[in-house]
Write the structure tokens for this entry.
Amino acid sequence: MRKIAVLNQKGGVGKTTTAVNVSAALAAGGQRVCLVDLDPQAHASLHLGQAPGLETPSVYDVLTGDTTLDEARATIADNLWLVGSHIDLAAAEVELAGIVGRELILRDKIAEDSSDYDFMIVDCAPSLGVLTLNALAAVEEVFIPLQPHFLALHGLSKLLETIALVGKRLNPRLRISGVILCMYESSTRLAAEVTSDLEEFFRQAATHRSPWSQAYPLATRIRRNIRLAEAPSFGQSIFQYAPDSHGAEDYRQLTAEILAQRPLR
Amino acid sequence: MRKIAVLNQKGGVGKTTTAVNVSAALAAGGQRVCLVDLDPQAHASLHLGQAPGLETPSVYDVLTGDTTLDEARATIADNLWLVGSHIDLAAAEVELAGIVGRELILRDKIAEDSSDYDFMIVDCAPSLGVLTLNALAAVEEVFIPLQPHFLALHGLSKLLETIALVGKRLNPRLRISGVILCMYESSTRLAAEVTSDLEEFFRQAATHRSPWSQAYPLATRIRRNIRLAEAPSFGQSIFQYAPDSHGAEDYRQLTAEILAQRPLR
Ligand SMILES: Nc1ncnc2c1ncn2[C@@H]1O[C@H](COP(=O)(O)OP(=O)(O)OP(=O)(O)O)[C@@H](O)[C@H]1O
Ligand SMILES: Nc1ncnc2c1ncn2[C@@H]1O[C@H](COP(=O)(O)OP(=O)(O)OP(=O)(O)O)[C@@H](O)[C@H]1O
Ligand SMILES: [Mg+2]
Ligand SMILES: [Mg+2]
């Protein structure tokens, strides 16, 4: 099972749109996928037309109580399951504050879960708090969606340091599988320049053997496409809502690229 | 002096772009403006080519030490001053945790400041923590930039409740002066629908006499314009970087609309 966190502490860069649509594309292609919504805003859950916590338990109950992943999981479509979120999760940061091993709860619950998936994908909140640390301690791969604007690289360094620290102290198997260029405004100079700065950044990292020296920007760029912003208001992935759009095309291609990645060890 | 917080806990919706460009437009029109960067990411400071904290004190020193606003203030242009931020400010949340009246520090420092401005504009971080509470306790008006996408109204309710609570407990003069539609994708159905939902929301609020019953979406919409994303990489406002662009046009018009607002009491 490939266990993946979709992470960037910067808000509104395409994490949820990526987590949801890559999950949907993988499932449509026959991969068994469990999507975990680890954001109290619950946007991934809402994107797929779910509102957990009202009648079904949510990931909040999994992290703060005895609920198993299985009890909090809902079937979304063939091959696609969701462990949904709820605004109560916002309290988890405070509730878990004193608990020993509070960053390892999700990892333990995954270990106790007997279901087998090909992919577990965790959509993270725009923060580096205890919820996101749970994701980083539990998965083996991180994908970083990034909008190619000024200051994108600024936030990236801080994020990479946090990931390296978790890798060192909590999870030696953690690696960055790639940076995903999202909301890409084609044919603008800004997108081209930030992208080339990013490529240079990772070329440098590779020569210096830093903890992220195997990370790289994926070839597929997700272009700006209003259909991607419309799909959630119908509770659908882009493939249900607008299968012929550029948004669907790009996420299909991105998913193929992710599937083709060979594990690095 | 009109004291304004630019606030939305959702990330990447146009807070900094709005705070910086409205400040610049007001200053160019002869208003004396002090911009306060209350985000540890310091994007407003970087947008104007500043990197405080290295040699000059920053708003971190103002909030956690004896530094006055005057000592942390830099002149940016005619009529435009900046109290800049620094990543150290991220520690303020923790450092101020036990302090009595920790949300009122900025208000006290403003009261001790003898400089007179026509406008003080505070750029907030995407969070409702102690830094943002300092802004809400210190100002009298809140502007809420908002991207007209699905779930924009979702986050708005929570934000309005927080503002109402601060208004009730800490700052009875606090009011919401308006919602600013940013990153507006003209001629998309999504922008039109979310905007009309927003207008309906505030029409309802007006009839129910809720604490935000005088809030409304401003008529000026800030359209998506790549120039607005490019300007910060040159350390310039949109008026210096691309004075004839749609971005400059829209922020000029928004500023005129803000100037024309009559105080509600
Ligand atoms: N390629 C795209 N083209 C157009 N709109 C997009 C694209 N990707 C995402 N969006 C829209 O932009 C907004 C932000 O995207 P998204 O919610 O995926 O970001 P996020 O990083 O998960 O945000 P948060 O930090 O709040 O969790 C959403 O309204 C989404 O529908
Ligand atoms: N109207 C617009 N058209 C195109 N790009 C824009 C527009 N407004 C803002 N941007 C760009 O979008 C990104 C996010 O905008 P901005 O930094 O102003 O949002 P923010 O709400 O302050 O984000 P944060 O929550 O991180 O503080 C920036 O790269 C900015 O340059
Ligand atoms: Mg998200
Ligand atoms: Mg900002």
Notes: The longest strand of chain B covers residues 175-181. The mean pLDDT of chain B is 94.
